[in-house]
Amino acid sequence: MLVFILIYYHILDFKNNINNNIMYKYSIFARKKSSIRNNGSKLIDIDFHYNIFNLACKDDHPEFVIFVSSSTLNFKKREAIRSTWGNNQSSPILFALGSVQNKTIQSQINAENERYSDIIQGSFEDTYRNLSYKQVMMLKYVNKYCSDSMYLVKMDDDVFVNMQQLTNFIHNDLSPNYKFNLIMGDVYIDAPVIREPSTWKVTPEEFSPNVYPTYCPGYRIIYSMDIVQYLHRQSQNPAVKFFWVDDVFVSGILASKLKDVHKDIGPLTATHTRVKQYLNGSAKYDCFVFSSFSFDINKNGQMMEFLRNQTPCFSVSNRLIWMNK
């Protein structure tokens, strides 16, 4: 009987040793995988480096940083921004681009950057389906190089900004009372996933639920810096699956565990129709922070007129319900 007991405990001890070794090897593998995913050369799930890099914040600590998502071919749009609302020295304005295989186009981008030093170009290909990489690259950059700023303003290159009013809104309305837990834009709740054939079709394999988590469309979003840091950490989590719809991925999926962070700033934006009315004289200019371009980018004179006619106003917070509760 004693012999059988000794044999039993010997077998049990042997199994425990095997299990411990397996768990040890698994934990080593997990740590290696995690460290690989979180090192500086990774962007979500791909190897990454900057093709073009500029240090924007340097020794000063701007209240906010503007990152403009731009296609490699949109030279005229970037130039239009620089010569109109982007002709501003108080806050850094950077253009986020992906890579391009065409050497002629890349040479033009290099020359553009030599002149302006405001381009951040990632090593991923500049395509519509890589926009999530582009937006996470912005988070990565700001998290590391501009973390002393309070806000990241992310927008597309077809958005016009009233810089004076944006500065007033952030400095006078946001900074005193709203420094944390902010993803500000148009807020989409339970937006349906498009399954029908279109540019935005998403298959169940790509995203299985039929509605998206709450998110903000990315044509203009303001993130508080704590959210920038949180979203960047989440993007590096190996458990997070890449999703190509960048608005949903960054401000929705990565933020899905956060509560009450999405804030509506739709009333601060002049609609496409309203901008056309401004330009054709059927409506008087009033106060806004953002608007769509809605004009010929080849006519900078038209844009300058638009810039000159913007109506200044000190505060717009009275338009936002969540600021007046």
UniProtKB/TrEMBL annotation:
GO CC annotations, alphabetized: Golgi membrane
Any one Pfam family match given in the protein's UniProt record, by short name: Galactosyl_T
InterPro entries per UniProt: Glyco_trans_31
GO terms of molecular function: hexosyltransferase activity
Keyword terms of this UniProt record: Glycoprotein, Glycosyltransferase, Golgi apparatus, Membrane, Signal-anchor, Transferase, Transmembrane, Transmembrane helix
UniProt topology in membrane: Single-pass type II membrane protein
A GO biological-process term: protein O-linked glycosylation
Primary location class: Golgi
Enzyme Commission code(s) on record: 2.4.1.-
Subcellular location: Golgi apparatus membrane
Presence of keyword Glycoprotein: yes
Entry similarity comment: Belongs to the glycosyltransferase 31 family.
Protein name per its UniProtKB record: Hexosyltransferase
Upper classification of the organism: Eukaryota, Metazoa, Ecdysozoa, Arthropoda, Hexapoda
